[in-house]
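[audit] Reproducing an earlier prediction to check determinism. Same input, same settings, fresh worker. If the tokens differ from the archived copy the diff job will pick it up downstream; this log only records the rerun itself.
[audit] input (432 residues):
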Amino acid sequence: MPPGAGDALRALIARWREDPGATYRTWFLWEERVKNFRSIRRGIQAVVREIEAGTFGNAYRGSSLETVVHSVAEQRQLFKGADHAWLWKPKLRIPDIYESPENQRAFGRFLDTCVCCSTEEQVLTAVRRLDALGIKGLGPTAANLMYFLHPTLVPPFNTAMVTGYNALTGAKVKLGSWEHYLAMRAGVLELNARYRDLLSNDLGAVAGLLFDVGSGRYPAPPRADDAAARAAWEADLARVRDDSAKDAKALAAARESDRTHTEVQGWLRDLGRALGYAVWVAANDRTRPFGDGRLADGCLDALPAPLAGAPGADAVKLIDVLWLERDAAGAPTGRVAGAFEVEHTTSIYSGIVRMLDLALGAPDAAVTHLFLVAPDGREDDVRAQLARPAFSRVSDLRVRYLPYGELERHRETMARFGTGMKAVEAVARTLV
């Protein structure tokens, strides 16, 4: 990078971090973001299992791949349109993983390797092996899946990020080529290392910067030591600051969504305690302000040993609210009386996966008191997700839909006169 450009880029990153409408604040610092990593990993493992078993099929629609890619595409603006590259294009015969069993199996092996490996060299070897096969239409869009497996090793990849990278570095990276992607990845790692104090070990941060530059939100700093060009760039940057004030409304709306999510968690916390249960609040939500204190006030500090040591415990810890039964002495047991996932605006997919982890992995876990709690108007969304083939196992679990409105109207009465789970079940709706 030319002399002087580094300081300009540092100024750009600092400004970007403070911008309420930039991806750093709207996506990278979004508290729900980290909850999606495990569920997407589980979805990728499901794709691998289906390919290995020969049950994946020859269509994207309705497949386990569509389910997991849809979840990726829901992760706010960076991944909008992430499913486009996976749609079957019959005139081009791409991506050639639906009609070619051999290519499909190769794709499955690639995903399985990426799930299981842990080092940079293993990841790169898997990419080179896949690239060597020359499978039509199966290019670096797969990096968007790999990012959720290895966020410190694999940056995501789309048109805006490529455009932003080229603008910042003067490179000429092209879409659709693993060779170009790997070259860009090396440059992204170098850029991230240089400004690590402003970015993160998680490459999602630097990817967000590239996205915002590539999508035109931020102008790239001049790559020459030209005073006039630098002055023009600084003027453009100042205009971005003015525009950012308008985006404060969008951020306020996002924060309002978070507030609503927390409020509903608080209702469930208080109701569970009133009904005599020990209550667990999601590990990443515990410190959220609620009322005059924090959301986790009066709740368990740790899951009971039977749950904490069970398969899938990392996902169970992220379930929004758990009600746990108590023993004769009043101590919490490992038996879950009720599990609640609050799906205000986030991916219903991730919540369902966490429910499955609990119901299928935890010993003595209740499988008849699982609730998806969502706004009154989201019932169709919930039903549509549960209709996906990937969630056929859910039909055995009797997951219920608990609308906000019903919870808000009846929670105080349930707290005063209710016993056990009967009152909650009475206002919830059976989904399958």
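[audit] rerun output stored. Observation attached for the diff report: The first strand starts at residue 278 and ends at 281.
[audit] end
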